[in-house]
Design brief:
93 residues, 6-stranded antiparallel β-sheet, 1 helix
Length: 93
């Protein structure tokens, strides 16, 4: 495995949070994301988030996910799924 993530989750509650987000965040859904750092992003999801096994900075293998969102004006971002604390759906684009 060559993929690394800034954080990986080994605990069941952390992994369940990722799974709940993955199941709820549909492609083309317009959402407001409240991030763990307190910031908010508003945009349209381009794909369903993925959850995969990664190696963390310490070399341990664990779980994290990735999310791609179009914030408009050509600003497309790839985010780590565990950075999302909460989401509010705003409808489909």
């Amino acid at each position: 495995m060559s993929r690394t993530a800034p954080r990986v989750h080994l605990d069941q509650p952390g992994i369940e949070h990722l799974k709940r987000l993955q199941q709820a965040l549909d492609p083309e859904l317009r959402v407001t994301l409240r991030m763990r750092d307190g910031s908010r992003l508003v945009g349209t999801l381009l794909d369903r988030p993925t959850i995969q096994q990664f190696r963390g900075p310490d070399g341990r293998e664990g779980t994290n996910g990735q999310l791609r969102i179009d914030l408009g004006g050509g600003d497309i971002r790839d985010l780590w799924l565990d950075e999302v604390a909460h989401y509010t759906p705003m409808g489909s684009s």
